[in-house]
Amino acid sequence: IRMILIGPPGAGKGTQAPKIKELFSCCHLATGDMLRSQVAKKTPLGREAKKIMDQGGLVSDDIVIGMIKEELDNNKECKGGFILDGFPRTVPQAEGLDKMLQERNQTLQHAVELQIDDSLLVARITGRLIHPASGRTYHSTFNPPKEYMKDDVSGEPLVQRSDDNPEALKKRLATYHAQTTPVVNYYQKSGIWKGIDASQPPGQVWKSLLSIFHEQR
Ligand code: AP5
Ligand code: ZN
């Protein structure tokens, strides 16, 4: 499969993408996760990116396009296809992706938008807990871990993301509406766009995704 998941912060991209990865044995490339791993390693890029991410802005197009290209070229899991989470989020990134795929004689099959009202996102973002090493995501109320503040699989501690507070969320949402809504329009014109209701419980959202895969097979 070759697809992208578009949606505002907290829409459920990182919750659904691993399930798609498992179903299709493809790679799951999340630019936010890649950037957070640079931040954790305190690389020069990570130090620069942290400031931008904590303010809810966007890292430069060239950097994220380069990160995706590197993975598509070298990550063996991507031979089975890919699901992109959080990329592209500007029109130049969408154009960069088209160019990369053209060079590989490939096309994108699905551009799925997770649609949800901004008002529902505050609770999702402020309750989110993550396991940094694996990227596994929980929610204090909607999807609590088996043991308080511990990852179900490794037992390691869960943490909050430094950009998961109401102030940063406001900026991330503003950035989304200004920069990523045009990306939705870009794919609507291309004919591969589908929108699904992301305000439903996770299992329902998954069913909506499955119906898209069945329709277009
Ligand atoms: P990124 O990591 O991509 O953050 P985001 O887009 O803000 O999205 P989130 O990860 O917050 O939301 P999600 O949709 O994955 O939600 P989740 O499934 O976890 O990017 C972070 C930053 O990096 C950006 O702000 C930017 O600075 C930079 N960056 C990244 N990519 C970039 C790019 N391409 N270009 C430039 N800069 C870039 O769910 C959220 C919570 O809700 C969880 O707790 C979950 O358990 C819960 N939940 C999920 N689904 C449901 C449901 N159906 N019902 C109830 N609860 C649910
Ligand atoms: Zn995410």
Automatic annotation (TrEMBL):
Positions of region (LID): 127-164
Major place of residence: cytoplasm
Residues that bind AMP: T31, R36, G57, L58, V59, G86, F87, P88, R89, Q93, R161, R172
Top enzyme category: transferase
Residues that hold ATP according to the record: G10, A11, G12, K13, G14, T15, R128, T137, Y138, Q200
Keyword Coiled coil tagged: yes
Highest taxon of the lineage: Eukaryota
GO term, biological process aspect, one: ADP biosynthetic process
Catalytic activity: AMP + ATP = 2 ADP
Gene Ontology MF terms in the entry: AMP kinase activity; ATP binding
EC code: 2.7.4.3
Domain Adenylate kinase active site lid: 128-163
Subcellular compartments: Cytoplasm, Cytosol; Mitochondrion intermembrane space
Keywords: ATP-binding, Coiled coil, Cytoplasm, Kinase, Mitochondrion, Nucleotide-binding, Transferase
Protein's job: Catalyzes the reversible transfer of the terminal phosphate group between ATP and AMP. Plays an important role in cellular energy homeostasis and in adenine nucleotide metabolism. Adenylate kinase activity is critical for regulation of the phosphate utilization and the AMP de novo biosynthesis pathways.
Family: Belongs to the adenylate kinase family. AK2 subfamily.
Subunit: Monomer.
Entry comment, domain topic: Consists of three domains, a large central CORE domain and two small peripheral domains, NMPbind and LID, which undergo movements during catalysis. The LID domain closes over the site of phosphoryl transfer upon ATP binding. Assembling and dissambling the active center during each catalytic cycle provides an effective means to prevent ATP hydrolysis.
Designated name of the protein: Adenylate kinase
Entire-sequence positions represented here: 40 to 256 of 261
